[in-house]
Write a structure and sequence with these properties.
alpha/beta, Aspartate Aminotransferase, domain 2, 15 helices
Length: 470
Amino acid sequence: MTQLWQALEAYAKSAVYPFHMPGHKGGRLGAFSHMMQQDITEIAGFDNLHSPQGILLEAQKRCASVFGAEESFFLINGSTAGILAAMMACCGEREEIILSRNCHRSVYSGLVFSGARPAYILPEMLKGKEFFGSITQKQVQNAVEMHPHARAVLLTSPTYEGITSDIESIAAFLHEKNMLLIVDEAHGAHMKFHPFFPKTALEQGADIVIQSLHKTLPSPTQTAVLHIQGKRVDRAKIKQALSMIQTSSPSYLFLSAMDACCHWLERQCQRDFECYVEKLQWFYERTKNLEQIAVLQKAGFDRDRGKIVLELPKKNMTAMEMNDMLRKQFAIEMEMASLSYSIAMTSPADSKEGFLVLAKALEKIDKQLCEAKKTVFLEDMVQEPSPVIKTTPREAYFAPKKEILFLESENHVCAEFIIPYPPGAPLLAPGEVITKEKIQKSILLQKAGICFVGCQDTALKTIAVLAERQ
């Protein structure tokens, strides 16, 4: 086991009395008493995450070595912390940053924190599908030509659905322009460890890469890492931003778990990944002949097939209804569902039995769908125009606001987020003009049962807009 875990275990078993935080005093009071024995604060011998000199510094160096980075930082506030820190370190007030429009909500929070002005790239639309595709090198080139003073480009790859962009060619182009490439690779921490998966953003030359260990690797919720490579990144600013964004009381349980995950990746994961890929290949072969449910394979783009995407192309049931059947009839809890597709999130920890249960359940549902009636559904997605930005998200966040009826908000400037969740990419962000199309799509998603976050009235009866029309 790792040095950090061994040190925590030894301290837990020692006779030292803890006149220090946290207040459960080594599990003497409260829930999870055994686990809390290793829950400590920054005491002698255990280093400090905000200024690592010893055991945590060595743990982060091991992490960098495992993932192929020059320097890595543990994040105990999830990938969100890494994205916020990266944006704050790279962009300041009213400086431009180029973003893919399907970025996670944390990127938009980063605009509020940093004061940066967004310029959006709209991902390619996938014909007949409800979700976006890749960002191309040509799209990035066009965006840079239109916004030559932009400080950085931030892309999501892979997406929630596993779709990756050509990071290698994008990075090469941006580096010729002396621009930074930040990649939100929260869903791709596993990809380096088997050729079945796409290459990672680090392998393809990105400058800053943020990964969630907890999404696809054996590590607790909230654990993530930020990786850096190359000379373009201001590392002092990254460290300063991380210190501001992350809690001053980091969990040693999380830190130890991340170190243990890296230890497993370094020394023990090869066989587990071989078995994992075999199970995925078996599942895709088993389900390739379903008639009503389409299991997404490769389709003209590189994709992380660890994300099992189930589509309902004949539109006789919503994916939310299918997920409900999987939950109630087969005791299977899926990762997420939108209207026309559902996602099963997999990892090396999944068992053959789990894949078999899902395959059999889909076969049974597939037969039932042959007789199902067509349900209310979105039409095929079309390429939406780029948002009309009247002010930066930060300016809109702090500006005077008023509440009006959502159905009467067309042409007003939005003052809050309208975010279908999951996956978490906003339909509307502060500072953008509200359009008729956005109102209609929001209402349709709401009627279908999609939840919204980022807005005070999640029922969407009212919306906050800027008090003065722009």
